[in-house]
Structures are given as structure tokens and as C-alpha cells.
Amino acid sequence: ETMLEMKRLELILKEIKNNRILCNDFVPIVCSSHLWPIDILQPRIPAELSFHTRDFECRYKEKNPNRRLTWQLRNSTCIIDCSGKFTFECSAIQGFILLLFNSRDELSAKEILESINLPTLGSHIDGLLSTKILAGNDVFRVNEDFTPQKTHFQVPRVFWHGPDPKDQRLY
């Protein structure tokens, strides 16, 4: 069993090395679908990022015309730079949530769910609330008084495996 796991890891590392295509600060890692479980539910990629995904898809198709690309957002990471004052890492979905606040001061859980195409916010919003980046309960807003203790930190995140049937919250 350990040998099988090592072989799988070797295949993953080979895929990463062979499929590296750089697109400015957007650096996806491409791996074969047989190495990763497929996401059934696909969150909606925000317009601010869709240019980068389309650009990457075009470059990838030029190099690999017979392969299909499927975005696996559940394991993706976002690094957000706040005007050079501080940076933080969060999940892609947490980053998608934060992008929504570029155009709105407040958003309800329902509005966030509909904008991103998620069944529940649960763990995604919990990390943003626990770090105090966002404030609110049923209606959320960016915490204007947020001051991090470090210039670089990580927002707590959960690797998403779909909705938790025990979690009945909208958020």
C-alpha cells in the first residue's frame, strides 16, 4: 500500500512539473483527473478572475489540444495582498467571497450563495469570521477595523468535500 501511495505521489509531481504554464500571478497546477477526485459542484468563478482562467485554458489547449481542463476549486489557494500592508492566504472560495465585497458593502448569506453557486457557506465563512476579516451574522460586511497581528497569515480553511448534511446553516 505504501508503494502504491509513493507511485501516486510520483505521478502527481510529474504532472505538476510537465504542465506548468505561467500566467502572471495566476499559477494553476494541472494534474490528471485519475489522480484527483472530481468536484461535482462547481462554484462560479468571479468575473475578476475569469480572464485569468480563460487565458490559462487557451495556453493549456495550445500545448495539450487533446486534453480537457476541469477546475478543482476545493483545493485551491488564494493569496491576497492588501495594498502592501499585509497579505494572507485563504481558500479560493473564501477569496471569491471577499471579491464580492468589492462592489457591495453588505451581503446576506443567500446573496453570497447565489453569487458563487454554493449550497452552504458554513466552513468557508467561518474562517473569515474567526479572523475578523468579515463581521456579521446573517448579513456580512468587511470589518473596517480589522488589523492583523502579523504581516502574513493564513485564514482557517476547510478543504471542501461538498455540503455537510449535518450542517443546516445557510452560512
Give an account of the 3D structure.
- With 171 residues, the chain is α+β, with helices and mostly antiparallel strands.
- Helices cover 35% and strands 15% of the residues.
- The protein has helices at residues 2-18, 47-63, 92-100, 109-116, 122-130, and strands at residues 77-82, 86-91, 106-108, 134-136, 139-142, 152-154.
- Strands 1-2-6 form a three-stranded mixed β-sheet. A three-stranded antiparallel β-sheet has the order 3-5-4.
- Strand 1 and strand 2 form a beta hairpin.
- The radius of gyration is 18 Å and the shape is globular.
Helical region count?
5
**Global structural class:** alpha+beta
Q: Low-confidence parts, pLDDT < 50 over ≥5 residues?
A: none
**Helical proportion, percent range:** 25-40%
Mean pLDDT: 78
Per the principal axes of the C-alpha atoms, what is the gross shape?
globular
End-to-end C-alpha gap: 39 Å
Q: How many beta-strand segments?
A: 6
Biggest sheet descriptor? 3 strands, mixed
Order of helix and strand elements from N to C terminus: HHEEHEHHEEE
Defining traits:
alpha+beta, 5 helices, 171 residues, three-stranded mixed sheet, three-stranded antiparallel sheet
